[in-house]
From TrEMBL:
Gene name per UniProt: solA
Keyword Membrane: yes
Ranges that cross the membrane: 6-23
The keyword Flavoprotein is annotated on this UniProt entry: yes
Keywords of the record: FAD, Flavoprotein, Membrane, Oxidoreductase, Transmembrane, Transmembrane helix
Protein name: N-methyl-L-tryptophan oxidase
Domain FAD dependent oxidoreductase: 5-359
Length: 390
């Protein structure tokens, strides 16, 4: 048993998955500090669903990581007897030369899956919900689906507690003191309390910049929106009839329950990065941005014009400048580990990312190479840019 005092700042998908993996590895003094509550509605992990897709263009690393992550989610489903994932398939609408649709199709096939290339006629017959006229590369991967995000968070929370871990809600960390490497790390809380730790994992999502003092991370915060449509026929838009979809920056899900015992709505959004966000400001709805996305969705899925846009949900991305994750030690202090730059495509990887972060704590060989997620890559990019200017 490892007696290190480990504090995880943030109870989103990365924080909970890291705590779960550490406890599975035999660490016993693991505490998650969450500034609000698990699955609170301002967090990037909150919500009914997240897309699990294998398509990442020709990026074999991420495609392979999806495969590893799905294996782990299914194992957790079996262990807990909770429903975490629903296969829906994913319809990808793209172009021959967009560096995403065809390379993604080819890469997924190399991994051993069997996506289908569809003609316009075949797509219209199988998936009449979609207007595919603007696209010249159409594929369908039956192995994709949707994660039930809120349920995943609650299952991880329950597992952590069952294994002897601690979750403290409404405990906002205001600063982390770690200047003296010979003394424990001190976390100062908003209520005036202080907690000492031997190791700290910062998994604070959009609030990461509040905790690192003068250290500047190459992570930006953006406003994003989820749109929910009601009053569509389940026979055409339910889980058994309609796939999840990706069409450029647009993506969405068939009708599914948005809350436990709640209504079933069709969910769609744009992945395009929105305006800069401040995590401590009230949610802001940009009506012009919403109008533009809705008009494009109407063109893609004509039946939405007769549906009701019943809810708009604002949330935030914390995204690195190269859109790869940051999973690394803090410079000059390996006792602190940073997990950030995750938003936009991290949830499906959550349980695997927690395993990777826990490998940084235990200093064991990770199941996936970590080079691409190191902070040092940004210094290298800056040097290259400086040379090119010279």
């Amino acid at each position: 048993m490892n007696q290190q005092r480990i504090i995880i700042v943030g109870g989103g998908i990365l924080g909970l998955a890291t705590a779960y993996n550490l406890l599975m590895q035999g660490f016993i003094r693991v505490t998650v500090l969450e500034q609000a509550t698990i699955d609170h509605d301002r967090g990037s992990s909150h919500g009914s669903s997240r897309l699990l897709r294998f398509e990442y263009g020709n990026d074999t690393l991420y495609t392979g990581m999806v495969n590893l992550s799905l294996e782990r989610w299914k194992k957790l489903e079996q262990q807990t007897q909770r429903h975490l994932y629903t296969p829906t398939g994913v319809l990808v609408l793209g172009h021959e030369n967009d560096n995403f649709a065809r390379p993604g199709y080819d890469t997924v096939r190399k991994l051993g899956y069997a996506p289908e290339r569809l003609t316009h006629a075949a797509s219209a017959q199988r998936f009449p919900q979609f207007n595919t006229a603007d696209y010249d590369f159409i594929s369908y991967n039956m192995d994709a689906g949707m994660m039930h995000a809120s349920t995943c968070l609650k299952v991880l929370r329950d597992c952590i507690i069952d294994m002897g871990g601690t979750i403290q809600e409404r405990q906002r960390v205001t600063s982390i003191e770690h200047e003296d490497l010979l003394k424990p790390i001190r976390l100062l809380l908003a209520n005036g309390d202080t907690i000492e730790a031997d190791r700290v994992i910062v998994a604070a999502g959009p609030w990461v910049h509040r905790l690192l003092g003068k250290m500047e991370l190459p992570v930006r915060l953006t406003h994003q929106y989820l749109l929910y449509f009601a009053n569509l026929p389940a026979s055409l838009y339910g889980v058994n009839a309609c796939p999840a979809f990706i069409a450029g920056d647009l993506y969405g899900f068939p009708m599914h329950q948005i809350t436990e015992n709640g209504p079933s709505w069709f969910k769609a959004a744009s992945h395009e990065f929105g305006a800069p966000a401040d995590p401590d400001e009230p949610p802001h709805i940009d009506q012009q941005a919403i109008k533009q996305v809705v008009e494009r969705l109407y063109h893609l899925i004509p039946a939405l014009q007769q549906a009701d846009l019943t809810q708009i949900e604002a949330f935030m991305y914390d995204v690195s400048i190269d859109e790869d994750f940051i999973l690394d030690y803090m410079p000059n202090d390996k006792r602190i580990i940073l997990g950030t730059g995750l938003s936009g495509h991290a949830f499906k990887f959550g349980i695997l990312l927690g395993e990777l972060v826990s490998s940084l704590v235990s200093e064991e060989e990770p199941v996936v190479p970590m080079t691409r997620f190191k902070l040092s890559r940004f210094a290298a990019h800056q040097n290259e840019h400086s040379h090119s200017i010279a």
